[in-house]
Amino acid sequence: MGEAIIFAEANGESTGGRDSQSVADLLESHIDDVIRDWLARVELEPDLNRIHLSFHDRTGHLPQLLHDVIRRLRLDEGTKAPISEAAAHHGDLRAQQGYSIAMAVEESRVLQVSIFSMLHKSQEHLDFQTVLPAVVTIADEVDAQLKQQVLRFVDADELKSVKPTTPTKAA
Q: What ranges in the chain are assigned the alpha helix state H?
C-alpha cells in the first residue's frame, strides 16, 4: 500500500488528501465543462454533423444524462441502478431527428471520452483509490443509457415497419 502511495505521489496523483473530492462531486461541479468538451468533440465528427441541430437540440439531453451518472455514482454498492428515463427520451428524440443507431453509439462514446478527460484534467482533486471504481460505474451507466436509446430506436423502426391494415367493409 505504501508503495502505491509513493508511486502515485511521484506521478503527481492525489492519494486522497484533505482537498480530494468524490468523482460524483467533481463531475457535478464540471457539468458545463463536460458539455462544452462533448460539443467540441461532436463538432469534429462528420457523421454526427450531417444532421444540423441547434445548440439546445444537440446538447439539451446532456444535463439530465450526466445527473443520472452522478446519481449512479452516489448509490451504495450493490444497489440496483434505476433505468434512465432521460436516455429513453433521448433515444426517441434522436430517432425523430434522423439519427442512426451508429450515430447514437458515437455520441455515447464521445460522452465517455469527455467525462474521462475531465477526470484526468482534475485528477489532483480526486482520491486516487476511488477513481477506477468510479470509471467502471460511469462506463456501465453510460452504456446502460445507450441501451435505452437503442431500444427506442428499435421500437421506432418496428413501428415504421408495421403496415396499417385497411378496414374491410361488411357486405
A: 2-10, 23-29, 31-42, 46-49, 55-59, 62-74, 85-97, 101-121, 128-161
Scan for cell 450493490, then name that residue.
Answer: 78
Residue 126: beta bridge partners?
A: 21
- Helix, strand or coil for residue 83? coil
**How far is 70 from 67, CA to CA, in rounded Å?**
5
Beta pairing partners, 21: 126
Among 4-8, 38-42, 131-135, name the one with the lowest average pLDDT: 4-8
What's this model's pTM, rounded to 2 decimal places?
0.81
φ, ψ of residue 21 in degrees (nearest 5): -120, 160
Tell me the per-residue pLDDT of 105-161, one tens digit each, with 9 for 90 and over. 999 999 999 999 999 999 999 988 899 999 999 999 999 999 999 999 888 766 666
Sign of CA dihedral 150, 155, 158, 164: negative
